[in-house]
Amino acid sequence: MAADVSLADAELIQRSRRDPAAFAALFDRHAPALHRYVTRRLGDSLADDVVAETFLTAFRRRARYDVSHPEARPWLYGIAANLIGRHRRKEQRFFQALARTGVDEVAESYADRVEARVSASAAQRDLAGALAVLSPEDREVLLMIAWADLSYEEVALALGIPIGTVRSRLHRARKKTRAALGGVDPSALVVDAEADHG
């Protein structure tokens, strides 16, 4: 029984309970974006492992998936967030190194834009420094919204927290990073940096 790629995530998960191979369509659908997100968070060296472990965990837990949620993206990002949590010190060191050097190892692998990088480098250093000092919880919310493009509702679902908590953490993260960046909206810099390197 082959998986129909037109099925909603919940239907694929439900089908995979009978036909484990159907889960591959869920991987094909979400792994590339999740990999980009994890790479931005932890660097390329850990991204493959974290994404693989995310989908392995999801596969093992598929029988408990709430099929009333047709979209599995928040569920997958929630699993990834827990795994990223194991690597928080590495993430913080990554942002601190980026703040010191201005060299984003992830972006450097796509480097063709020397001119654009000259001005973006300073902003990246400032942004990395601001991200490094955020609490892990505030950073998680900010980056899920800015880098993974999840909605407030999806972040709440992914992290298992009320939407009001998402809003307060995002507000706090934006306020702290805006202050660290001299009044510049951190979401704009995070999105701009992604556009420059995507």
Q: What is the CATH first-level class name of the largest domain? A: Mainly Alpha
Determine the fraction of residues in helical runs and give it as a percent range.
Answer: over 70%
Name given to the CATH architecture of the largest domain:
Orthogonal Bundle
Q: Radius of gyration in whole Å, from Cα?
A: 18 Å
End-to-end C-alpha gap: 36 Å
Structural class label: mainly alpha
In CATH, the topology of the largest domain is named Rna Polymerase Sigma Factor, Chain: A
Quaternary structure:
single chain
Strand content: under 5%
Order of helices and strands: HHHHHHHHHHH
Largest sheet: none
Number of helices: 11
The CATH fourth-level homologous superfamily of the largest domain:
RNA polymerase sigma factor, region 2, helix turn helix motif
Number of strands: 0
Average pLDDT reading: 82
Low-confidence stretches: 107-119, 191-198
Number of domains: 2
Approximate shape? elongated
Describe the structure.
With 198 residues, the protein is mainly α. The chain folds into 2 domains: 9-119, Rna Polymerase Sigma Factor, Chain: A; 121-197, Arc Repressor Mutant, subunit A (Orthogonal Bundle). The chain has 11 helices and no strands. The protein has helices at 9-18, 23-42, 44-60, 73-85, 88-101, 105-108, 114-133, 136-146, 152-159, 163-180, 186-197. The longest helix has 20 residues, at 23-42. The chain starts with 8 loop residues before the first helix and ends with a helix. GO terms for molecular function: DNA binding; sigma factor activity. Keywords: Sigma factor, Transcription, Transcription regulation. Residues 126-176 form the RNA polymerase sigma factor 70 region 4 type domain. InterPro entries: RNA_pol_sigma-70-like (IPR039425), RNA_pol_sigma-70_dom (IPR014284), RNA_pol_sigma70_r2 (IPR007627), RNA_pol_sigma70_r4_t2 (IPR013249), RNA_pol_sigma_r2 (IPR013325), RNA_pol_sigma_r3/r4-like (IPR013324), WH-like_DNA-bd_sf (IPR036388).
